[in-house]
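Cast an eye over this sequence plus tokens and explain the fold to me:
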Amino acid sequence: MRRRTFLSALPAGALLAGAANAQQTTGAAAPSTNPASVQPAPAPDPYAGVGIGDRITGPRFVGRSTVWGANGAAATAHPAATMIGLDTLRRGGSAIDAAIAINAALGFLEPTANGIGGDAFGLMWDPAQKKVVGFNGSGASPRGLSLQTARSKAGDDGYLPRYGAVTVNVPGAVDAWWSAHQRYGKLPWKDVLLPVAELCEQGVPVPQVVAYYLERGMANFDKSAATIEENNNRKKVWLTGGRTPKTGEVFANPDLGRTYRLIAEGG
């Protein structure tokens, strides 16, 4: 006797209904009831929308590759300052010697963000004590400035003015350099600063970002000149022909170089 197949045993109506359903669901897979087959949603990309850097691996937003040094390294915002730091290390200086030289150099190379008229702070690893040591080079309030005078200069919001001598503390940067050098320096004090003085006297081309902020800063000073006690010195140092140096122009600051020489020789 011939065996009947399951398909041939189904009623004709069931076959037609099945065919109709098959036409409506063609290409759609039936949902699986097996939990193991459910794939988790992909993790969000933390760098989505971030520009591409130049690293071949790792976070793609990083624009610079890691730099390694066999005997030391220096990283600054200006190539000339980096070279000052490396030269200090090559001459037998300590990391602190190099840091002081770099900070002094940036006071000339990047004056919109550094300078001996400000403060200095630092963290370093002390191998002898086996702990992190911090330097707080923030200057105190001027001895001749009374609280009453400071309050009289405050605005309606209670804050001191943005410009003017009353807002400035006694600069602490040079004292921080000296204190750090006394504990961790290797080179003679003058050998740390004299190369920086020479750099100030020779001059260097002005980077774009420094030229931009010099022009912007001088314009802001001009707007607030009435609240600034002394304006002639900044114009003497930064203006040539009535304007600040442009991108690529060689700029020198011999007055700052002379100041560094005095600090180098006198401590």
Q: What stands out?
A: The CA atoms of residues 71 and 126 lie 18 Å apart. The longest helix spans residues 208-223. The longest strand covers residues 120-126. The chain has a mean pLDDT of 85.
